[in-house]
Design a protein that fits this description.
By secondary structure, the protein is α+β, with helices and mostly antiparallel strands. Helices cover about 40% and strands about 10% of the residues. The protein contains 16 helices and 15 strands. Strands 6-7-11-8 form a four-stranded mixed sheet. It is globular. It binds protoporphyrin IX containing FE. Protoporphyrin IX containing FE binds next to helix 12 and helix 16. Belongs to the cytochrome P450 family. It comes from Papilio machaon (Old World swallowtail butterfly).
Length: about 500
């Protein structure tokens, strides 16, 4: 529906009122209704997709050349800085067209527009998936992921198949009470990032199952940014990077001869969880709950997705939080006071974290300033007006949370580390859609409750036991592949 400005029909679910797009000064249509509304016309002031500003693609090379090292000026490792400069140069809505092998993108730096797009989502929002993972799940290993209907997981899966699978797992994964049940086991492993059984990462020796899993997940993340942003040669032939990537995924989901991948790390945990579940007759863990609720196959596929995106995200978020706190003794003291007041010398129990608003606020503040996932997106399933431009279906819209979270427009004293802004909300300027580290809506992070629990518990235990200090040069952040401090974290831990 490109450029059809005369008669456009589009469906909006629950748009909030009086949203002003600062780029165009265009006031979005408003309705209080949460029901669908159909608008038949579009104001002639709405501009076309072709008019969206952005770096101009070159013939044949598109904009992909900009990511070529030493030549292009854009760096995969510093997409954060690229996005800041795009916002500065082109405004709140920037077109990134001509990245070879992938659909055109629209970068959105306008929190009001982010809210409007998120609130208008249909029942199966489409998050731009990594084509390389798509290819792995639906072509290379389709015998496994396609063996049962609607059993391919949630990552790189869309439409009805995504909705059916997500329904099976989200009740178990997203309930706050089910996450809180893990307070004690998570506390036991403190900063180990366990989904289910204690993977034994701290005791793990080189070559152990846990270490292989961690290495494989890390290789997956390191390769995926390169495969997605650089020229997609892997589509033509299996490059060395692509082979490493597939090997890493296969490590998590290993093929055994012509059979299904029954010896993969993931399935061995599922089998163990199932046995424990049968032996105990009770509901003891996320995987056991998944097995009970949806069967071992769904649990296995869900576990693959959860391992893939749950390990590096949370560990980097904790590392980043410790680094930020290490140079802020006054914040550590306030945290320590809060924790001591709630626990009064006893071990952490379910429900305690809810009595610790400052602890939660510290994590929110770190994720506002340094979100481990700097942007999140949707592939439009219908033509949509964003920032006054008619954006065609199929375009990937990327919400720039790192840039918005650091913007004075949405947060007062944006560059200051002020956890209290999340407690005294009326004192500080704040926009709920400018910092969404876990995404939003039906496709929001499935591991959010667990990630938060793990971060809160790890932080609580560390601050309770130690004072942290950092006595070296400040670290820059980079994308590796999460947004994380660049350098060894030489923190000093002093017993309290
Ligand atoms: C600090 C830690 C984490 C951050 C910042 C984070 C962030 C995100 C974001 C931004 C998304 C996209 C949401 C959207 O499209 O609206 C996402 C999706 C997802 N996350 Fe997380 N995540 C974290 C930890 C975890 C953990 C620990 C798990 C697993 C236990 C997990 C599992 C998932 C899954 C499965 C999805 C895809 C959901 C779907 O497409 O239906 N995440 N995460």
């Amino acid at each position: 529906m490109r450029n059809r400005l005369g008669v456009i029909k589009w469906r909006i679910r629950g748009i909030s009122t009086n949203i002003q797009c600062p780029v165009q000064g265009h006031r979005a249509r408003s309705t209080h209704a949460a029901v669908d509304s159909v608008f038949e016309t579009v104001s002639p002031s709405i501009k076309s997709w072709e008019e969206v500003p952005g770096p101009k693609p070159l013939p044949l090379l598109g904009n992909t050349w900009r990511f070529v090292p030493y030549i292009g000026g854009y760096s995969v490792e510093h997409v954060d800085k690229v996005c800041l400069s795009l916002r500065e140069k082109y405004g709140k809505c920037v077109k990134m067209a001509g990245l070879l092998g992938r659909p055109d993108m629209l970068f959105v730096f306008d929190a009001g527009e982010v809210e409007r797009v998120f609130r208008g989502e249909d029942s199966a929002p489409h998050r731009p998936s990594m084509p390389s993972l798509n290819y792995y799940k639906h072509t290379l290993r389709k015998d496994f992921f396609g063996a049962e209907k609607d059993c391919a997981g949630v990552i790189a899966v869309h439409g009805d198949s995504w909705a059916a699978f997500r329904t099976k797992v989200s009740k178990v994964a997203l309930s706050t009470s089910s996450a809180a049940q893990y307070t004690v086991p998570v506390a036991e492993v403190a900063d180990a990032f366990s989904l289910d059984t204690r993977l034994g990462c701290f005791e793990s020796v080189e070559g152990s199952e846990s270490q292989r899993l961690i290495d494989a997940v890390h290789t997956f993340f390191i390769s995926v940014g390169e495969l997605e942003l650089r020229a997609p040669w892997w589509r033509i032939y299996p490059t060395a990077m692509f082979r490493r990537y597939v090997a890493a995924l296969d490590t998590i989901l290993r093929q055994v001869a012509s059979q299904f991948y029954i010896n993969s790390v993931t399935l061995s945990h599922v089998e163990r969880a199932l046995k424990e579940c049968q032996a105990n007759g009770g509901s003891k863990s996320l995987l056991q709950d998944l097995v009970t609720a949806a069967g071992p196959r769904v649990a296995a596929v869900a576990a693959l997705d959860l391992f893939l995106v749950g390990i590096d995200t949370t560990s980097n978020a904790v590392a980043s939080t410790l680094y930020q706190l290490a140079s802020r003794p006054h914040i550590q003291e306030r945290l320590h006071d809060e924790i001591t007041k709630v626990l009064q010398g006893r071990p952490l129990a379910p429900g305690d974290i809810n009595q610790m608003p400052y602890l939660k606020a510290c994590v929110k503040e770190v994720l506002r300033l340094f979100p481990v996932v700097i942007g999140n997106g949707r592939q439009l399933t219908k033509d949509t007006v964003i920032c006054g431009y008619n954006i065609p279906r199929g375009i990937q819209v990327i919400f720039q949370h790192y840039v918005m979270g650091n913007s004075e427009e949405y947060f007062s004293d944006a560059s200051e580390f002020r956890p209290e802004r999340w407690i005294q909300r009326s004192t500080y300027k704040h926009h709920a859609f400018a910092s969404l580290p876990f995404g939003f809506g039906k496709r929001m992070c499935l591991g959010r409750r667990f990630a938060e629990l793990e971060m809160h518990v790890a932080l609580c235990k560390i601050v309770q036991a130690f004072k942290m200090e950092y006595h070296h040069e400040p670290l820059d952040y980079h994308i590796h592949p999460m947004y994380t401090p660049n350098g060894p974290l030489r923190l000093k831990f002093i017993d309290r």
